[in-house]
Amino acid sequence: MPTPQPNSFEIDIRRKFGHNAIQTLASLSKQAITTPLAFGLMPLDAAFAGIPRQALTLFRGTLTAGMTTTTYCLMSQAQCQDEVVVYLDPSSSYDGQYASASCGVGKEKLLHIEPKNATVALAMTRDLISIPSRGLIVLDMGLAEPDNGSVAN
Asked: Are the CB atoms for 90 and 141 separated by under 8 Å?
């Protein structure tokens, strides 16, 4: 099977974060793919052993329930495993100072994107998950409002 050529998005990420920022699944060991990503929070790691890779994980809850802290800790854990984190933030709620100081999220392996609305954020998420790579994609819908328009495919 021929190796697919990188698209411009892939090239931009590699330029910013290094050549190994995006890797095809074929280049990864089976263990790297199937090993869950730990939360980095002892009670959650003891109860759930992390989140599965290559799967959708949804956090839902009320304000102050700990979803943001849990997500930032997951981001830090992914970065500790030399993975890039893409954070889609249509509601502009990302708190970089808290993420760094309290949860250990670094700026070096973080791509923070603020799409103009929830519809665009969902379209970007769709496009990101179609790229065969290793990393963590966070879609923080927070208080994002849906757009009544549409996004081209």
From this structure: yes
Name the token pair of 104.
């250990």
Indicate the burial class of 72 (C-beta count within 10 angstroms; 0-12, 13-18, 19 or more): buried
For residue range 62-94, list pLDDT tens digits in order.
Answer: 888 888 999 999 999 999 999 999 999 999 999
Residue 81: count other Cβ atoms within 10 Å of its Cβ: 14
Burial class (CB in 10 A: 0-12, 13-18, 19+), 145: exposed
- Please write the tens of the pLDDT for every residue from 89-130: 999 999 999 999 999 999 999 999 999 999 999 999 999 988
**C-alpha to C-alpha distance for 45 and 11, rounded to whole angstroms:** 35
